């Protein structure tokens, strides 16, 4: 209470711009000083195992005999049947029953990147992580199987969001949506290409033939899928950043997977499409303009592109410069800080499902720290010098907050710690399972469970919800979807973080 009371009072004090830096340094000094009052000593290995298990709860299709979350049953077994295409499988992205391939592919990419960078720290969980990737890639192979088409979604989102129904019972239209050369969709096609290319690297050691198959399928089409399918993908997963970042993201992963100069040449020739470049007197690109260099998530890939290319030994501008600018935009002590922090120290950005930002950004920060270590590099943010240890510390602070080191002493991962969300915004978790309630639950009949104030009858272990508001407050209510809904793209980058800290806990 002492800590949270202090922060509530402190957050009401107004400062003029001249003392902003002083405020930030005091803020984080006090946060560190009082952190002993919060939950500490996390079991990162346990959290890692649970975060992977969450993906089993998001599975669509015919579940295998190895399924561990046994309250989930088969669903979506006829997806694609009406057009003669097998689209069974894949993941539900969040608490609904639609398969949105754009965020699904990004989640798969991040799962693969986590394994590539930190798989050696996963121990016995590595096989489970690879299975989580394979569940996504097997479906993405189906989505790109028909020549000339890329299937980008299964399910009518408007009808689905009008129901509160178990995936096992859903009777809303399972309409398949596709893009083609005539009706282009570069964002989702390129993200699928990135997912397949990244996953091919992840499987290279354990299943070489599968890795080759994934890489061969990594193709893209040019054009915006919002232009083609806007009424059916918006407002759920509109692409607001354009498709150029996805094309470059795909090229970066293909270049890393193949080491082909074809993709490197494409990157060099098209990197200017992201932003207006800054050019020095020798007509060399020194940085990219605008603020998108600091963005990373299922929609915007800019920061990920720069770090991925830097890590691929292309330590040249603009990639290195923009990677450094990204760090300076995130670290709280930086004079060019461009994100917000809650009083308890959680990174915060506008919009819903905020924990997608701390997990994705912290993953990039951790990976950059490891890249920097290899070349004895530091980042200079004005007069502030930031080395790899500080970046690792920052990432750990964000992970620890999620796991319970916060003013509410609450873990935001279901099933981890002594206190965690009990009423999440998730149809399958909130409605009694078929084992307990074998009779069909119709579309509107599920509203009873949506409105209930009782805890979820099914524990979606490992699910990380959207998280607290900017004042570190969390309303444990499934009606508050921006806080209570878990997503695959919150969990996917968290795997890499948890794997690293399970082997490097201090």
Largest sheet features = 3 strands, antiparallel
Structural category: mainly alpha
Tell me what portion of residues adopts beta-strand conformation: 5-15%
Helix content: 40-55%
Number of domains: 1
Morphology call: globular
The tally of beta strands, per DSSP, is 9
Unreliably modeled segments: 1-39, 221-241, 276-290
Strand line-up across the major sheet: 1-2-3
In the CATH scheme, the class would be Mainly Alpha
Continuous helix count:
19
Q: What is CATH's topology name?
A: Glycosyltransferase
N-to-C SSE series?
HHHEHHEHEHHHHHEEHHEEHEEHHHHH
The value of Rg in angstroms is 22 Å
Span of the ends, CA to CA = 26 Å
Mean pLDDT: 85
InterPro entries: 6-hairpin_glycosidase_sf (IPR008928), 6hp_glycosidase-like_sf (IPR012341), Glyco_hydro_9 (IPR001701), Glyco_hydro_9_His_AS (IPR018221)
Protein name: Endoglucanase
Catalytic activity: Endohydrolysis of (1->4)-beta-D-glucosidic linkages in cellulose, lichenin and cereal beta-D-glucans
Active site: 425
């Amino acid at each position: 209470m002492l800590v949270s009371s202090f922060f509530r009072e402190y957050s009401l004090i107004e400062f003029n711009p001249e003392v902003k830096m002083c405020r930030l340094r005091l803020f984080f000094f006090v946060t560190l000083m009082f952190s002993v009052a919060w939950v500490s000593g996390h079991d990162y290995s346990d959290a890692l195992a649970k975060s992977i298990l969450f993906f089993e709860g998001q599975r669509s299709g015919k579940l295998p005999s190895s399924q561990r979350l046994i309250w989930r049953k088969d669903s979506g077994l006829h997806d694609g049947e009406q057009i003669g295409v097998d689209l069974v499988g894949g993941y539900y992205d969040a608490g609904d029953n639609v398969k949105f391939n754009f965020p699904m592919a990004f989640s798969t990419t991040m799962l693969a990147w986590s394994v590539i960078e930190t798989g050696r720290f996963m121990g016995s969980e590595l096989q489970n992580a690879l299975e989580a990737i394979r569940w996504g890639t097997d479906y993405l192979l189906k989505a790109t199987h028909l020549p000339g088409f890329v299937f980008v979604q299964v399910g009518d989102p408007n009808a689905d969001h009008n129901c509160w129904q178990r995936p096992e019972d859903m009777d809303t239209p399972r309409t398949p949506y596709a893009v083609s050369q005539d009706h282009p969709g570069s964002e989702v096609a390129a993200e699928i290409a990135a997912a397949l290319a990244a996953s091919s690297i992840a499987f290279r050691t354990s299943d070489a033939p599968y890795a080759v198959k994934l890489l061969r399928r990594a193709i893209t089409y040019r054009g915006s899928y919002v232009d083609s399918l806007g009424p059916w993908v918006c407002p759920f997963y509109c692409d607001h950043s354009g498709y150029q970042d996805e094309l470059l993201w795909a090229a970066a992963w293909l270049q890393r997977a193949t080491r082909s100069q074809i993709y490197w040449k494409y990157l060099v020739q098209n990197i200017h499409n992201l932003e207006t470049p800054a050019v020095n007197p020798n007509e060399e690109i020194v940085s990219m303009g605008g603020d998108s260099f600091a963005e990373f998530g299922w929609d915007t890939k800019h920061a990920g592109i720069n770090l991925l290319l830097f890590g691929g030994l292309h330590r040249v501008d603009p990639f290195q410069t923009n990677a450094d600018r990204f760090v300076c935009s995130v670290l709280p002590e930086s004079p060019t800080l461009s994100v917000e922090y809650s009083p308890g120290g959680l990174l915060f950005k506008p919009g819903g499902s905020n924990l997608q930002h701390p997990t994705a950004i912290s993953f990039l920060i951790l990976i950059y720290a490891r890249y920097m270590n290899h070349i004895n590099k530091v980042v200079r943010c004005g007069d502030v010098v930031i080395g790899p240890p500080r970046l690792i510390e920052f990432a750990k602070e964000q992970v620890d907050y999620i796991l319970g080191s916060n003013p509410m002493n609450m873990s935001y991962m279901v099933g981890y710690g002594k206190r965690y969300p009990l009423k999440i915004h998730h149809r399958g978790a909130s409605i009694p399972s078929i084992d307990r309630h074998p009779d069909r639950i119709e579309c509107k009949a599920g509203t009873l469970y949506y409105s209930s104030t009782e805890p979820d009858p099914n524990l979606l272990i490992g699910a990380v919800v959207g998280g607290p508001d900017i004042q570190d407050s969390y309303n444990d209510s499934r009606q508050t979807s921006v806080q209570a809904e878990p997503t695959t793209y919150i969990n996917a980058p968290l795997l890499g973080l948890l794997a690293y800290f399970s082997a490097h806990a201090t």
